[in-house]
Amino acid sequence: MNLRLRDLREDKDLTQQFIADMLNCDQSLYSKYERQIREVPLWVVNKLAEYYGTSVDYLIGRTDERSPYPSSKIREVSK
Fold this sequence. Notes:
Layout: H1 2-11, H2 16-23, H3 27-34, H4 42-52, H5 56-59
Helix pairs in contact: 2-3
């Protein structure tokens, strides 16, 4: 997953600091996510997938399709 996080961030010319601020964490922690030193929490993966307009499956390497799922296939999770 680390290469995809970095590639997506760099494709948008964003800094690690920008993404860390969006996630409300330190830049050093986000850097560890990209380098696979720390496991990325599911809520972070989900938030990044939404931000980048892709699927969680793409971020974790289960598919090479960058496009997100059609909204008709996404089900709401009750809170």
